[in-house]
Design a protein that fits this description.
The protein is about 60% helix and about 0% strand. The chain contains five helices and no strands. α1 crosses α2 and α2 packs across α3.
Length: about 80
């Protein structure tokens, strides 16, 4: 999985209110429409996210991810 793609999605999600709303309504479609081409592993990770959380909860979790850690994703 490309860490760069996941980080770009996270950055856009945290910064872009419209993108957040689109992702909450249709995660895979919104990400595809934003120009991100996901592989099977990235799509599976996307499907594992609980988008029933509030925007604040999701943003907090994504923003707090440990990108400097050798192991981990925003959803660990």
């Amino acid at each position: 999985m490309s860490e760069e793609i996941v980080k770009a999605i996270v950055d856009k999600y945290v910064a872009d209110e419209t993108f957040r709303a689109e992702v909450r309504a249709d995660p895979e479609g919104a990400i595809r429409s934003a120009g991100f081409d996901l592989d099977d592993e990235e799509r599976a990770l996307l499907k594992s996210i609980d988008f029933t959380q509030t925007d604040e909860q999701l943003s907090e979790r994504l923003a707090a991810s440990a990108w400097n850690s050798p192991i981990g994703t925003p959803w660990d």
